[in-house]
Task: inverse folding
């Protein structure tokens, strides 16, 4: 019952998972897997991935695509461990430009919400301890 | 009983949590908190933090310090979401130089184990969903 209510609560939301981007394939691979895992939770209308730099699709491309599909509530989430220049300056600047572009094209009904990075969390400690145990073998 | 056995298993290990480093304070703050959380688990002899660049202490400084304290089993763990040039080239190069330095000074009894980054994990998805819910409010 609680699960149904929760799914109803977020069913109009699209999520954009934003990563840094890299010349090597690993950053994109991990983001892709996280996206698939989150999509499988079935909580949001759709979950997409986007990259700040070096990989495609870009953040603005993905948001334009979601708007063209009729999404009005978009959560842009930085998949970063901690805040830094990318999450406090670069990504907000991109979102600001997209919001301006949408407003100028008459789409004032679209809301882009920006979230916080992962941060210090006991679940991260759990994962790190697993990685340490794996390394020790 | 199982907990006691586990603590005994890892009591001779020191852990070095390695982050990227940043001109802004957030990266160091998050690593500091993760270090404290892990120290509180009481699983390893000691847990230290180190930075690849921009912040102190550096990786080689921390490892030298641990060796001078008598630690012989050191796990160096990249606190990164995914592999990239930093985890596959930069940090391994630093560890290689430290291992060489230790071997040349006759400390062939010190073992430096390098671990894997966080990667795609359902617990990361759990955290990201919490951050999305917080952002929606």
Result:
């Amino acid at each position: 019952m609680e699960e149904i209510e929760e799914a109803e609560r977020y069913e109009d939301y699209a999520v954009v998972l934003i990563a840094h981007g890299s010349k090597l394939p690993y950053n994109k691979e991990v983001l892709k897997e996280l996206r698939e895992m989150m999509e499988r939770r079935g909580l949001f209308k759709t979950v997409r991935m986007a990259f700040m730099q070096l990989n495609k699709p870009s953040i603005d491309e993905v948001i334009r695509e979601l708007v063209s599909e009729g999404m009005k509530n978009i959560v842009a989430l930085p998949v970063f461990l901690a805040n830094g220049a990318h999450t406090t300056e670069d990504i907000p600047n991109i979102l600001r430009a997209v919001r301006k572009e949408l407003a100028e094209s008459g789409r004032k009904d679209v809301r882009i919400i920006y979230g916080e990075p992962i941060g210090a969390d006991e679940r991260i400690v759990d994962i790190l301890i697993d990685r340490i145990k794996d390394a020790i073998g």
Remarks:
- Residues 85-104 of chain A form the longest helix (20 residues).
